Amino acid sequence: MDAADRTFPVMRVALPVPMPQTFDYTSGRHGEVDAGWIGCRVRVRLGSRRLIGVVVGIGAPAGVHALRDIEARLDVTPILVGELFESLAWAARYYAHPLGEVLASALPVWLRTRAAAPAPGATRLSLTDSGRTNLASKPPRPGSAGARLLEQLDAGVHAVPELLTSDAARRTARGWRRCGWLDAEACAPTAAIPAAGPVLNPAQRSAIDAVLAERGFATWVLDGVTGSGKTEVYLELIKAELAAGRQTLLLVPEIGLTPQLLARLESRLGVAIGVIHSALSNGVRARVWQAAASGELDVILGTRSAAFVPLPRAGLIVIDEEHDAALKQQDGFRYHARDFAIVRAQALGIPIVLGSATPSIETLANIAQGRYRRLVLPERAGAARPPRVRVLDLRAAPL
Asked: Helices 230-243 & 258-269, crossing angle to 10 degrees?
């Protein structure tokens, strides 16, 4: 094909390779190129490799060389659009990282590597009669993944995200299912009756009222001593968003903080909570990501990678322990989840709350410059008292 004929539009595809540019492809037998392609995943060839990339634009061919056709369009409708797409493009520029790798990092591993989205798979596991009989006659070795899984099932835990939190647990569950010992079924989350919370003190109530009084983007710093009831403030703010039909994203720095916080959220809010962190299986994370993107989930709890979750009904972002270094990604695409979440909140026009007993230096600087607004919880909530500190002279004591 000569240059005179090359006036047709082509797709600019961002691929997960360490190169800053995008790559041109034609639609081939997949129909005409139009704006509906932008934000969709496509499978293409780059050299001898097959890669999954994201269409980021449409334009005229950049040169006169022959172009390859895309091999497959993987999404009927775009999955990276609007605010999230623009925020990720900003992150690629700000952190000087190739756009293709940034977009890939924002997608769950399942969607980066597989053509089809995960099916709405089993969300509930239970022991069959055969499983109970066999495991009773020959119980798993104490301390093994099988023993822990059996203990959880006997305790009434059935949800897949709470059961299969490690590779060993997932392997054990697959083996038990092949033997017919585990039954899996898809089930809709059941809404619980919200539990009543404690009486809030004046400082907590003042902080809640301040955030709720002003809609639109604002960065609030909830500066509270340990035990001052910051989580109660989060819960009341999330309840207000639920009542208004809006979503909340709650980020925590460590996986270890999620089980306790998840139980508290579920008991107090009475809604299903989507959880995203690296200890969950790829399929579970992809389903939560898609449920958030479709607006099915009202509350999403996760570690730093959850900052990339789509929020079509966004109402509030909360970051607990905003000072924690674990919110920084240290390899590959290096970013700070707190800072990226603030950029997203500004783009979405919603408030963001940064909670900490020891705010970071950069947060304190932003408060001093008037960019962030400070809310102080100066004392412990309820009857809690700070620990007594005594200085002991050990110089003469045998050690």
From this structure: 50
Question: pLDDT per residue over 107-158, tens digit each?
Answer: 999 999 987 777 665 567 778 888 889 888 888 888 888 888 888 777 665 6
How far is the C-alpha of 328 from the C-alpha of 392, rounded, in Å? 38
Q: Indicate if the pLDDT at residue 164 is higher than 80.
A: no
In a 10 Å sphere around its CB, with 0-12 CB exposed, 13-18 middle and 19+ buried, how is residue 76 labelled? exposed
Helix (H, G, I), strand (E, B) or coil at 276: strand
Classify the C-alpha dihedral 262-263-266-269 as positive or negative: negative
Pair 231, 299: CB distance under 8 Å: no
What is the distance in angstroms between the CA of the first residue and the CA of the last residue of the chain? 85
- The pLDDT of 49-55, averaged and rounded, is 96
Look up the pTM and report it. Answer: 0.81
d(CA 267, CA 271): 8
d(CA 14, CA 399): 62
**Residue 43: helix, strand or coil by DSSP?**
strand
Contacts of 380 (CB under 8 A, 6+ apart): 225, 226, 227, 228, 229, 386
Check: CB of residue 265 under 8 Å from CB of residue 314.
no
**Cα distances (angstroms) measured from residue 86 to each of 288, 328, 346, 347:** 22, 21, 12, 9
Q: In sequence order, what are the beta bridge partners of 398? A: none
